[in-house]
What does this fold into?
Amino acid sequence: MRSSSCSLPPLALYAAQESTSRGRCYPEPGHAYRGEYQRDRDRVIHSTAFRRLVYKTQVFVNHEGDHYRTRLTHSLEVAQIARTVAGCLGLNEQLVEAICLAHDLGHTPFGHAGQDALNECMEPWGGFEHNLQSLRVVDELERKYADFPGLNLTFETREGILKHCSRRNAQNLGAIGGRFLQRQQPGLEAQLANLADEIAYNNHDLDDGLRAGLLSIEELGAVDLFREQHDRVCRNHPGIDRRALIHETVRGMINQVVTDLVDTSRLQLEAAQPDSIDAVREQRQPLIRFSTPIAEQHLALKRYLHQSLYQHESVQLMTVRAHQVVRGLFERFMADPQAMPEEHARRALQWQQESGDEGKARAVADYVAGMTDRYALAACDD
Ligand code: MG
It folds into this structure.
């Protein structure tokens, strides 16, 4: 039994509750004063993969400057936004935080460029999906507990981590893959973590893009969400300096979309009245959502960033280099698995004996995906 002094705020009926949790793969006794989702969050924070996020690229590689977001600061911003919304809607804050902090654990070095390169390398053997890799990290690859592989997280945290999955891969995942085959929704905390991720990266990538000089305030006038907040700040604070103007604008943008998300989701929940997490899973559509106008404006911002930032030639230069590094490492370790550290070499040998080149390739992909940017660059120069 947990101490009543640690009691949590009341949860809505539709929130994830420990009493109806689908549990852990390896059953464990409860903790004296920590809840199950709190334990999940704590396990994520203490994982090796979580510490590595500080040296993994979001958009800008780590050594380009100290003020850009990394995967770690991105994950913290996602968790911050999601907890705020969870508190407003009576959702389980500890669960949503666990999902957000874990959601990018499977990301390769060099952001999406690294992932695309590894996916190409793995094409003959089922490809590489970063969401699925995040699940592999928490289910299998972290090895430090005496009684189980991975972190042995609850079903609900794992459900949130696996936010997308191909049908082909879902078929091999047991219960956690079921919703992709049956077209069910995940719990509300998982739905929220997904949108908090989008809100965080759209806004902080814009902020980082302005800081790097790859985006300009003038050109961003074409983006409704930005222009509206920018003009409001200029009206209220004539003569404001550029740094504060950008910060106040981005702050206003986040506030606008988060407020819309809370208001719209509340209306959806009032209309659908799901009385349990299973009732949420049976819904035809996600209940955590933006209003149509804000969803459209948010999508327009995302498209703008794709065109003007992610496709920018200086970001693309990094993309080309990332492909070379990831492919070079993958090919080298496929040819000579013994060149990997002992634990990975042993796994490659064992999996090769079990399932041939596919097993060996998966062990190599796990090793390369776990690398930080700087570790991959150093390994490439070896
Ligand atoms: Mg993310």
Remarks:
- The radius of gyration is 22 Å.
- Residues 99 and 157 are 5 Å apart (CA to CA).
